[in-house]
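Please go through the sequence line and C-alpha coordinate line underneath and see whether the fold suits the sequence. See right below:
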Amino acid sequence: VLSNHIKSSTLTPVGGGKRMGDDPNTSVKWHDLSPDEYAGAAAQVHSVVFAQLGSLSHSMIELGCGIPRACNFVRRLSIRYQLPLSLRIALIQHLLKNAC
Protein backbone atom coordinates (compact mmCIF):
# COMPACT_ATOMS: atom_id res chain seq x y z
CA VAL A 1 0.00 0.00 0.00
CA LEU A 2 2.75 2.42 0.89
CA SER A 3 4.53 1.92 -2.42
CA ASN A 4 1.47 3.49 -4.09
CA HIS A 5 2.34 6.76 -2.37
CA ILE A 6 5.97 7.20 -3.40
CA LYS A 7 6.35 10.77 -4.54
CA SER A 8 7.66 11.18 -8.07
CA SER A 9 10.37 13.54 -6.81
CA THR A 10 11.76 10.76 -4.61
CA LEU A 11 11.65 8.05 -7.26
CA THR A 12 14.75 9.06 -9.20
CA PRO A 13 17.63 10.90 -7.58
CA VAL A 14 19.07 13.96 -9.29
CA GLY A 15 21.62 12.78 -11.83
CA GLY A 16 19.88 9.45 -12.47
CA GLY A 17 20.51 6.26 -10.60
CA LYS A 18 18.21 3.71 -9.07
CA ARG A 19 14.56 4.27 -8.36
CA MET A 20 13.51 4.31 -4.71
CA GLY A 21 11.53 1.07 -5.03
CA ASP A 22 14.51 -0.75 -6.58
CA ASP A 23 16.51 -0.69 -3.37
CA PRO A 24 15.11 -3.21 -0.85
CA ASN A 25 16.67 -1.23 2.03
CA THR A 26 14.70 1.92 1.12
CA SER A 27 11.02 2.05 1.96
CA VAL A 28 8.26 4.55 2.53
CA LYS A 29 7.14 4.86 6.15
CA TRP A 30 3.71 5.90 7.39
CA HIS A 31 5.15 9.07 8.89
CA ASP A 32 6.54 10.08 5.46
CA LEU A 33 3.02 10.51 4.07
CA SER A 34 0.99 13.70 4.05
CA PRO A 35 -2.32 13.56 5.96
CA ASP A 36 -4.26 13.02 2.71
CA GLU A 37 -1.91 10.25 1.56
CA TYR A 38 -2.08 8.66 5.00
CA ALA A 39 -5.89 8.66 4.93
CA GLY A 40 -5.89 7.15 1.45
CA ALA A 41 -3.45 4.42 2.42
CA ALA A 42 -5.44 3.61 5.56
CA ALA A 43 -8.65 3.40 3.50
CA GLN A 44 -6.94 0.94 1.13
CA VAL A 45 -5.88 -1.24 4.06
CA HIS A 46 -9.40 -1.09 5.53
CA SER A 47 -10.89 -2.13 2.19
CA VAL A 48 -8.59 -5.14 1.96
CA VAL A 49 -9.28 -6.21 5.56
CA PHE A 50 -13.04 -5.76 5.03
CA ALA A 51 -13.02 -7.91 1.89
CA GLN A 52 -10.86 -10.61 3.46
CA LEU A 53 -12.96 -10.80 6.62
CA GLY A 54 -16.15 -11.01 4.58
CA SER A 55 -14.75 -13.78 2.43
CA LEU A 56 -13.29 -15.76 5.31
CA SER A 57 -16.39 -15.47 7.47
CA HIS A 58 -18.60 -16.70 4.62
CA SER A 59 -16.24 -19.61 4.07
CA MET A 60 -16.41 -20.43 7.79
CA ILE A 61 -20.20 -20.60 7.61
CA GLU A 62 -20.13 -22.69 4.42
CA LEU A 63 -17.74 -25.13 6.11
CA GLY A 64 -20.04 -25.51 9.11
CA CYS A 65 -18.36 -23.33 11.75
CA GLY A 66 -21.63 -21.57 12.56
CA ILE A 67 -22.77 -17.97 12.71
CA PRO A 68 -21.64 -17.23 16.30
CA ARG A 69 -18.12 -18.42 15.63
CA ALA A 70 -17.91 -16.47 12.34
CA CYS A 71 -19.17 -13.31 14.10
CA ASN A 72 -16.61 -13.73 16.88
CA PHE A 73 -13.90 -14.16 14.25
CA VAL A 74 -14.97 -10.94 12.51
CA ARG A 75 -15.15 -9.08 15.83
CA ARG A 76 -11.72 -10.23 16.99
CA LEU A 77 -9.85 -9.58 13.75
CA SER A 78 -11.59 -6.30 12.96
CA ILE A 79 -10.42 -4.99 16.32
CA ARG A 80 -6.91 -6.36 15.80
CA TYR A 81 -6.60 -4.72 12.37
CA GLN A 82 -8.37 -1.51 13.45
CA LEU A 83 -11.25 -1.80 11.01
CA PRO A 84 -13.67 1.11 11.53
CA LEU A 85 -16.65 0.27 13.70
CA SER A 86 -19.10 1.00 10.88
CA LEU A 87 -17.46 -1.65 8.67
CA ARG A 88 -17.34 -4.17 11.51
CA ILE A 89 -21.04 -3.65 12.19
CA ALA A 90 -21.84 -3.99 8.48
CA LEU A 91 -20.04 -7.35 8.29
CA ILE A 92 -21.67 -8.74 11.42
CA GLN A 93 -25.16 -7.54 10.38
CA HIS A 94 -24.68 -9.13 6.98
CA LEU A 95 -23.72 -12.45 8.56
CA LEU A 96 -26.67 -12.35 10.95
CA LYS A 97 -29.16 -11.28 8.24
CA ASN A 98 -28.15 -14.11 5.93
CA ALA A 99 -28.36 -16.65 8.78
CA CYS A 100 -32.13 -16.38 9.02
